[in-house]
TrEMBL record:
PROSITE patterns according to UniProt: HTH_LACI_1, HTH_LACI_2
Organism of provenance: Dermabacter jinjuensis
HTH lacI-type domain segment(s): 4-46
Keywords: DNA-binding, Transcription, Transcription regulation
Keyword Cell wall biogenesis/degradation: no
Taxonomy, superkingdom: Bacteria
InterPro entries per record: HTH_LacI, LacI/GalR-like_sensor, Lambda_DNA-bd_dom_sf, Peripla_BP_I
SUPFAM superfamilies tied to this protein: lambda repressor-like DNA-binding domains, Periplasmic binding protein-like I
Protein name in UniProt: LacI family transcriptional regulator
Length: 333
């Protein structure tokens, strides 16, 4: 008979895996109605406190938010890979600050997690402390940190190759005939932004390049597009697809067209990118490969595990050409 997992109960009871874990462990903090519902579903599925297979290692997944569609995509793939590896998962969302992230990690550890995967966490920001990561590693918790690398920490780091990503986007725009190109990114103190800007400065002539620092949101892309268009750019590379969609909206609000008046390249390849009008040319993050590597890095997590030596993995992105890039208007025809 197949093992009943926490996620199976959570889905049927319409609650979080963390709630299921608390109920089955007999911990407080869950109201009576929810507790009864979880226990009823657990019994229905053949899993009770005395018959639970709790031998499967537990892995925590920490996400900064669910507003950017790339994060649900990461979560879906991480949970799929964890399921395939026979790992239980608990998810913590909205770790938007160092304190929130540290609290989330502590809750996961108290729930029994022996490994934690963080996507675009505080490790990506130069100005935040890594003390809570070090404390986890010293307690034997395996850490895998996605999209960001920090010195002085024994963990697995996995990132998309930002240098290659920007190079692919710029080469595409160069071949189309663009001369003045802009880069739209977020906080200049973050690891992904530094990598993208360094690649942009390496691969595009300084006198014909412009950088707009906003944030990785729709509004950030909107603002960046206005700035870059005012500086004479005929094309822009965005640090996220959300930014790219905002940029397209800004160009339209100026009474102009994409790609005729401004070519736009995104970054991520969220599901909407292919269905947007026009369909978005973008850099595809290899989310399945990243998720697979991340789960493998913590898959041996047990009560006796120790943090693995520091390891850094860089995964190759892919350029996906769709409808938001074309030769600049003055070169057509």
């Amino acid at each position: 008979m197949a093992k009943v997992r926490l996620i199976d109960i959570a889905r049927k009871a319409h609650v979080s895996e963390a709630t299921v874990s608390r109920v089955l462990a007999g911990k407080p903090g869950v109201n009576a109605a929810t507790r009864d519902k979880v226990l009823s579903v657990a019994r229905l599925l053949g899993r009770t406190n005395g018959a639970i297979d709790d031998a499967a290692p537990l892995v925590g997944l920490v996400m900064p938010n669910m507003e950017n569609p790339i994060f649900p995509l990461f979560l879906e793939r991480l949970e799929a890979e964890a399921y395939a590896a026979d790992l239980e998962t608990l998810v913590s969302i909205n770790a938007r600050s160092e304190a929130q992230e540290a609290a989330s990690m502590e809750r996961l550890i108290r729930a029994g997690a022996r490994g934690i995967v963080l996507v675009s966490g505080q490790h990506a920001h130069d100005e935040t402390s890594i003390d809570h990561y070090i404390a986890c590693a010293e307690r034997g918790i395996k850490l895998c940190l996605i999209n960001g690398v920090r010195p002085g920490l024994d963990a697995s780091f996995i990132s998309t190759d930002d240098s290659k990503a920007v190079f692919l986007a710029l080469e595409h725009l160069r071949h189309l005939g663009h001369v003045r190109v802009g880069l739209a990114v977020g906080d200049e103190h973050s690891w992904p932004v530094r990598g993208k800007v360094a690649a942009f400065e390496e691969h595009w002539p300084h006198e014909f390049g412009c950088v707009a620092y906003t944030d990785f949101s729709f509004a950030g892309g909107y603002q960046a597009a206005l700035e870059l268009y005012d500086q004479g750019c005929t094309a822009m590379v965005c640090g996220s697809d959300q930014m790219a969609l905002g940029a397209i909206a800004a160009i339209r609000d100026l009474g102009l067209q994409v790609p005729a008046d401004m070519s736009v390249v995104g970054y991520d390849d969220i599901p909407l990118a292919a269905h947007h009008t026009p369909a978005l040319t973008t850099i595809r993050q290899p989310v399945p490969a990243i998720a697979r590597t991340a789960i493998r890095s913590v898959s041996s997590a047990t009560g006796e595990s120790r943090q693995a030596p520091r390891a850094v993995y860089v995964v190759r992105p892919e350029l996906v050409v769709r409808q938001t890039t074309s030769p600049p208007a003055n070169t057509i025809g």
